[in-house]
Design brief:
This protein is an alpha+beta fold. Helix content is 62%, strand content 20%. It is built from seven helices and seven strands. Strand 4 and strand 5 form a beta hairpin. Helix 1 runs antiparallel to helix 4, helix 2 runs antiparallel to helix 3 and helix 4 packs antiparallel against helix 5. The protein starts with a helix and ends with a helix. The relative contact order is 0.12.
Length: 328
């Protein structure tokens, strides 16, 4: 009888703690929303329309920051072009270090090669990279402004996720589980038989697992809230893409200039290819053109000589026959 009462008490306690956690979660979420609701429920009006529709009261704590007291995760992704890959990467890494951030991942790959004729005709490789940075959330805007000044941004995407309700819910559940864990420890210290001890230890193990799971979730939230993730898709180019709106004249002039550059680079590429492969070309011409041509000339000369010899022999026989007829 005593064992049954103890077991029933343990389960009733667990149910009460769970309900308490849910209630606290709901109340916590209300606490976060309350300032905003109060702001928009004021009776002040302009022409019958609440004044808060236009702007919050300057005395309100949330007037200057609508996200105050919220759990906000901000992330961004950028597509950037650069003419000098190494200089850009160094400058952006220095800026990240200055802001207190760090590099989470960095993947660099070669895309194509070209000859840099402006620097002695050396062969260079156009590179691309996928770099992921973690930046303190309160300095994200400063980082984005710095990146805009270091390279040519061709795409930009920012996301804001409000995890306030989930965060409050996890905190409430965690408090309930910790209270339950302490209670179960007290019951375990008073347990008198092996069956009760095994049952309580099994429940303690499950509760401890849930506690660790929720703690890990909170740590993940805290990390994402404190540090924004910025993904950069970096491309090294010979000419940057125009991102500002151009007039007809500007676009025509740019396209004409780029066409001239393409034609000039095409001629330079052909000249570099031809001079670089001249020995191969000469060997090819010698074996594929010269030798067959010599063989053909020899054959044609031989045929012509045979024809001349045959013609001369025929003429000699004709002259000999004519002389015989005249002597008769």
């Amino acid at each position: 009888m005593k064992r049954s009462v103890l077991i029933l008490a343990a389960f009733l306690l667990s149910a009460l703690l769970l309900l308490s956690g849910c209630a606290k979660s709901y109340n916590g979420a209300q606490d976060y929303y309350a300032p905003r609701e109060a702001e928009y429920n004021r009776s002040d009006s302009v022409d019958g329309i609440p004044a808060s529709t236009y702007a919050p009261s300057p005395s309100d704590a949330s007037a200057n920051d609508p996200l105050i007291n919220r759990k906000i995760i901000r992330n961004a992704s950028l597509g950037i072009e650069t003419l000098d890959f190494d200089s850009f990467v160094k400058a952006i890494n220095d800026k990240v270090a200055e802001l207190g951030g760090y590099v989470q991942s960095n993947v660099v790959r070669n895309r194509s090669s070209y000859y840099d004729y402006r620097n002695g005709g050396t062969k260079k490789y156009l590179r691309s990279a996928e770099i992921v940075y973690r930046i303190p959330a309160d300095r994200l805007d400063e980082f984005l402004a710095a990146a805009d000044g270091l390279g040519n941004i061709i795409s930009r995407n920012e996301t804001v996720s409000d995890v306030t309700e989930s965060y409050v819910d996890v905190e409430a559940r965690l408090r309930s589980l910790r209270t339950e864990y302490d209670t179960l420890l007290g019951l375990l210290s008073r347990a008198e038989n092996l069956e009760e001890i095994i049952m309580l230890q099994d429940r303690l193990t499950n509760v401890r697992y849930e506690i660790e799971s929720y703690e890990a979730r909170l740590r993940s939230y805290d990390s994402q809230i404190a540090f924004s993730t910025v993904s950069i898709d970096l491309s090294e180019v010979e000419r940057e893409t125009a991102v500002a709106e151009e007039t007809f004249g500007e676009e025509t002039a740019r396209r004409f200039r780029e066409s001239l550059e393409d034609v000039g680079e095409g001629f330079r590429d052909f000249a570099a290819w031809f001079l670089g492969n001249l020995p191969r070309i000469l060997v090819f011409l010698f074996f594929v053109v010269c030798i067959p041509l010599v063989i053909v000339l020899i054959i044609v000369g031989s045929v012509k000589r045979k024809r001349r010899k045959k013609k001369a022999l025929a003429e000699a026989k004709a002259a000999e026959a004519k002389a015989v007829e005249e002597n008769k």
